[in-house]
Design a protein that fits this description.
The chain has ten helices and eight strands. With about 210 residues, the protein is of the alpha/beta class. The strands form two sheets. It has a six-stranded parallel beta sheet with strand order 2-1-3-6-7-8, sandwiched between helices. A two-stranded antiparallel sheet has the order 4-5. It is elongated. The termini are far apart.
Length: about 210
C-alpha cells in the first residue's frame, strides 16, 4: 500500500512515516504539510491511502478530502486528528473520509485502521465511535435549545472575538490559527447554535454572559 501522510507538524509525520515504514506491506511515498504539496504528489505518485490531518494551517483537511474524493475516488482517506468533537467527525465523513482516528492512537490501532480502509471498510477509533453513537441516539437539530449545546473553549474564544467585531484575519492573528480554521469555527458555531448570522452569535454571547457588555 502506498501511503501519503498529510500533517503540518513535520516531526509528527516523520515519526509516523518511520513507524509505518517498518511494515512489510506498507510504503510511505510522501509526507507533506499543505494542500498544495498533496496535489503535487498525487500528480506524480500513485497513492492508495492518505492519512489526513484536519487542520494544516492554510489547508482545511475537510475541504481537501472532498476535493480529493472528487478527483481520485479510489484513494482511501483516514482523518488523523487531535479533534474529537463530533462536528469535525461528521463533517469529515460527509466529505468522504473512510475513517477517523485520534492522534493518540497506538501503533496497532493505526495499522488496523489502514488495513480496514484498504479493504474498503470504514474505521473509527473507540472514542470516535462513542461520539457517533451519541449523535445517532441524541441528534441535535437547529430547533433544539442552544442551552443544550456545549461549546469548546476554542469556539467560545472565537465567538467572543466575533462578537467584539474582529474580522476573520484579525481573529486568526490573535489565536495563532489560520483564517480558514476561523471560518470553520464560525460555521460550526452557526450550526451548533442554530442561528443564521453574526447577529445571532452576538445575541447568544450576550445571553450567556461571555461579553462584558
Amino acid at each position: 500500500m502506498n501511503i501519503l501522510i498529510a500533517d503540518d507538524h513535520k516531526m509528527f509525520r516523520e515519526g509516523l512515516a518511520e513507524l509505518l515504514g517498518k511494515e512489510h506491506n506498507m510504503e510511505v511515498v510522501g509526507d507533506v504539510g499543505s494542500g498544495k504539496e498533496i496535489r503535487e504528489l498525487l500528480e506524480q505518485q500513485k497513492v492508495d491511502i492518505i492519512l489526513m490531518d484536519i487542520d494544516m494551517g492554510e489547508t482545511n483537511g475537510i475541504d481537501m478530502t472532498a476535493e480529493i474524493k472528487k478527483d481520485y475516488p479510489d484513494i482511501k482517506i483516514l482523518a488523523l486528528s487531535m479533534h474529537g468533537d463530533k462536528n469535525y467527525i461528521i463533517k469529515m465523513l460527509e466529505a468522504g473520509a473512510n475513517g477517523y482516528i485520534l492522534k493518540n492512537a497506538g501503533k496497532e490501532e493505526m495499522i488496523n485502521a489502514i488495513h480496514t480502509a484498504a479493504n474498503g471498510n470504514t474505521y473509527f477509533s473507540s472514542q470516535v465511535s462513542a461520539k457517533l453513537l451519541d449523535h445517532i441516539s441524541n441528534p441535535v437539530t437547529k430547533k433544539k435549545k442552544t442551552e443544550d449545546t456545549p461549546l469548546t473553549d476554542r469556539e467560545i474564544e472565537v465567538l467572543v472575538l466575533i462578537s467584539e467585531e474582529y474580522s476573520n484575519p484579525e481573529i486568526a492573528e490573535k489565536l495563532f490559527i489560520s483564517v480558514r480554521t476561523v471560518d470553520t469555527h464560525r460555521r460550526n458555531l452557526l450550526d451548533k447554535l442554530g442561528v443564521k448570522n453574526t447577529a445571532g452569535l452576538v445575541k447568544y454571547a450576550i445571553q450567556k454572559g461571555f461579553l462584558d457588555s
